[in-house]
Amino acid sequence: MLSVERIPNQIGYLVLTEDGAVLASGGDLENDERVANVIVGLVMLTNKIDPKAFPVGEGFEKISITYPDHCYIICLSNKKIYVVKKKLSLPEKTVEQQQLIDV
Predict the structure, then answer these.
(1) What is the rounded distance in angstroms from the CA atom of residue 69 to the CA atom of residue 59?
(2) 3-state SS class at 64
(3) How far is the C-alpha of 88 from the C-alpha of 61, rounded, in Å?
């Protein structure tokens, strides 16, 4: 099993069963059953997407939910749901120095 604790920039993780039971957790998501329920609901919702647009058997590989300073990455593997909360590095703002000209 992949050690989710070693994923760079992760600030929290959940490992869930398909029905939403928390198998492992840590960081910001330690024992966070509310987030677990939201994630399981989202995963179940993907099963109800229009089969004409997304044929059966073409399930998602990864779901990313992005906020300005962090994101959630959701993957399915071996009948488990893996959720990682990662910190996003904000782009540095460059301030151009203005030259002052004496008149």
Answers:
(1) 28
(2) strand
(3) 21
